[in-house]
Design brief:
Radius of gyration: 20 Å
Number of helices: 3
Number of strands: 0
Order of helices and strands: HHH
Largest sheet: none
Distance between the termini: 49 Å
Helix content: over 70%
Structural class: mainly alpha
């Protein structure tokens, strides 16, 4: 089974975001402001990458929109 290129780009952005979050936390733990700042920047860049990939694909954007639709209950007593 092969992976869709778009899916791997989104996953890459999420992995980059997670890596940055871990790096930021390590920077806080060890008290290194430079490591913390670098991790924060990496996390933000990964989030932007994942969001950009999701927004660039019309198929996923329409699917996400379809998932958010609300079903309106039908009044069975005839008072529609």
């Amino acid at each position: 089974m092969t992976r869709d290129k778009d899916m791997s780009d989104r996953d890459e952005g999420r992995a980059r975001q997670a890596k940055g979050s871990v790096q930021e936390a390590i920077g806080k733990i060890i008290g290194d402001v430079a490591v913390e700042r670098q991790g924060s920047q990496e996390s933000k860049a990964g989030a932007r990458q994942a969001e950009a990939d999701q927004a660039s694909s019309p198929d996923r954007a329409s699917a996400a929109k379809a998932d958010k639709q609300i079903d309106i209950p039908i009044d069975r007593a005839g008072k529609d």
